[in-house]
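Narrative of activities, Objective 1.

The group set out to show that a structural description can be obtained from nothing but a protein's sequence at a throughput compatible with the screening campaign. Below is one input-output pair from the validation batch, recorded exactly as produced.
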Amino acid sequence: MVQMLERKKSSRDSVYAMKPTPRVERLRQRYLDTKYKAVIDISRIVTKVMKETEGEPQVTRRAKAFAATVRGVPINIYPDELFVGWLSSEPRGTEITVEDPDFIGPGLEEDLDTLSTREHMPFLISDEDKRELREEILPYWKEHYYSPTIIHRTATLGQANGSPGSDTCLAAGKSAEIRFLPHFVVNYEKVLKKGLLWVKKEAEERLARLDLTEPEEIEKVPFLEGVVMALEAAAEIGERFAARVRELAEREEDSKRKTELLKIAEVCDRVPANPARTFYEALQSFWFTHMLLGWEVSFTGGTSPGRADQYLYPYYESDIKEGRITKEEAQELLDCWFMRYSQQFKFHATERARWSGDGTPGHHTSVGGLKADGTDATNELSYMFIEAMMHTPGMVEPTLSLLVHSRTPEDLLIKACQLTALGGGYPQFINNDLLVDNLLARGEIVGGPPVTLEIARKFSACAGCHEPTLATMESGWQPIITNLPLAVESMLTNGVRRSDHEKIGLETGDPRQFKSFEEVREAFYKQMAWQARNGAIARNFGEMRLQPTLFTSALTEDCIEKGIAKEKGGARYNVGAVALFGIPDVGNSLAAIRKLVFDEKKITMGELCDALDKNFEGYEYIRKMCLEAPKFGNDDDYVDEEVAWVTHIVSEEANRYKNTYGGRKFSLQIPTAQYVPLGLLVGALPSGRLAREPLADGASPTRGSDVNGPTAILKSVGKVNNAKASLGQTLNLRIDPVVFEKEDGFKRLADLIRVFVDQKVDHVQINVVSSDTLRAAQREPDEYKDLVVKVAGYNAVFVNLHKELQDGLIGRTEHEL
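Output recorded for this entry:
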């Protein structure tokens, strides 16, 4: 154990451009040692305001609730900190957001007494907070806002069709309901350049320009007045913190710390109300803005910084040029700034927490990429962001990616590969060339002004796990869940789910009577389309419960000019999502049917159905043939073309459906951790997969089936029209750490990433950790508190994961290069 830890430390030291400061290490260790805590500051404030404003327009109530939150959330400042403000009110504190029923559910009250002792993701919570939730907060929201009548209607339309949200939350009456639209990047650059008071003035001027002789203009008044109210409160946040910091400074006996506190107060006097002038001010202004977004939309997932190295760089460059800061001082600021993202985790009720691990919200920031003119956008901060992630092991956020293109500098790519080699699953590699194609193609469907090449290059970014977005311009979205292997099962059972014999699909005919592979494909298509249709209906009902945002909308392009919240169609581009689970499992299953039943005629459809009904018990010889059939991820056209076909038809199907706020839906192949619980709903498949086993995660090969190495995987995934999967695809790889003990290990990985770009693959993320290390962490979790792994699109501390998720990671093929 000691030798392994020393080797790990040595590996870090060898790739650092500079060592982390003692302050950074002290803060990192403090955060790792701090227990998770549930807080109810925002829920308490919002509930009070909503009670007091019954009968007022909802948009006005939301504005008042946000303003009261900004002015009322407790201010906590701790030793050594160079920044102020927390995503919740304190480090490792997470707000119990009663407005987020999809994640909390009605089981919250029952969970409260075991919250601090439960096995997965325990949270400390005070007895007084539990009493207040039970007696004052939850009763109000259950009476006024949770809406089982809407959910009952969706249930009658066949919605309990294979999503954990469907089967667990639908039964409790909450599945389709959503409050806010996650997955977006707002215009942070506008705040840095002009300040929140300027944005407030913009809203006031738009309000003054309304022609109140027009009825539709009158409807815009409450929204714009609410924006002004929200921005006025938001602009005061710096003053609140400055006053508190000065109180601490007066009592501080250490002269060095006193000077630091007075500097923090000076920064807070300025931002975010006014334009930032320095790198320090820009970082704190950004942080206040990001924090306030979460206070309004609860960090429900994917509230992301976007390409922060681009909009922060002018401030860094100016400070370095004018001698106001050294590179070492700037790196320490970045290190501290990075660690603040890992101080809040999505709260889930007990059943959901089992699958979420650390439940990180997905604060995605990208480095590198392209400028509007197509030249490389790399700057010094691009390297320093990667360095900050190196300096902060054990932190699971921010979600860091490198936007790679055909002209990405080799030294930046090597730096990223050095970070990868340290373990932790960072950075993700995003194909920027394909991302531009994706956004250009999306613009033809989504509506709104044309997406020009310049816009696609400059504003291409990722939100959440790694979902492509046009930064500053998009609405955000919440996905429909489609369990595609369950559509295979329904095709082979005439619409019946094997696990409980419930009718969940269409009657597409007795599969034993299918005479051709085209009949198989046609039946699958109908089952898939039925799932997508029902999901679209459920999501439409859920979107009817969307709450207007004021602060978030004000920083989303066109909302102020249109006078409409982004939840009502105010954003320039309005996007919805259909999440596609298990496509490789479907492709493998179709290929096995095609090969064994129709091409080689080794078994009949009846024999296959019998074997699947029995989970292959007594039919081991058929399972052996199924497992030996071609598998996706090995550069085999026979199966790869099936995966490509499935990806195409489900993406086309997604585009058919509209959302309630003015746009269309796009396909998403990013699984979070749901590929494990979704697999529990699916019986045996023709691929040879047994009942209840996990599904393939995203576009990744089914675990253990990729036997020809990582280049073959990239070639298989590259055969798919990946730009069609508009909201991204997760591709997980695991590489043996021994690769980086070789002199050319980093270069070999960099070369593989070049192949990834050439093959037009959307995304790849790599865990560099051995199975031996993961198993040791299972045995001795206290010794591995900073072992971070890439689960799906998100990172988590390995020892905090449920054993089924841990075993799923161990089961991934461990490749060499």
